[in-house]
Amino acid sequence: MELSDSQKKHLKGLAHDLNPVVMIGQHGLKPSIMEAIDQALEHHQLIKIRISADNRDLRDEWLAKILEHVSEASVIQKIGHIVVLYQRNPKKPDMTRHSS
Question: Regarding the domain delimited by 5-86, which CATH topology (the fold level of the hierarchy) does it fall under?
């Protein structure tokens, strides 16, 4: 899903106060982690993921695998160990629209 800069900015603002709902630790990307990401995106649409790997290349590799798995998701922000993902759920209100 291609988002405009203003939509990404709006979603970053919404994500600011969120806590990570999925945490990836030393055991890496197991199928249960991928399932948790699927469920979190379906339920929340906008999620934070904490990737606890000290190696930046490993974090980037895991993020690439996540994005391959959830191909409809967009990276909204990536800072250090935290990644914010958004995936629209047609059954829920559109979070990319700001109320002005």
Answer: Translation Initiation Factor IF3 (3.30.110)
Residue 1 in this model has a pLDDT that exceeds 90: no
Domain boundaries, the chain: 5-86
What's the CA gap between 5 and 20, in Å, rounded?
Answer: 23
CA 37, CA 84: separation in Å to the nearest integer? 11
pLDDT (average), residues 32-49: 96
Whole-structure pTM value: 0.91
How far is Cα 55 from Cα 9, in angstroms, rounded to an integer? Answer: 28
Judged against a pLDDT cut of 80, whether residue 98 lies above it is answered with no
- Token pair, residue 24, equals 């990836």
φ, ψ (nearest 5 deg) of residue 79? -135, 115
Q: What is the DSSP letter of 97?
A: S
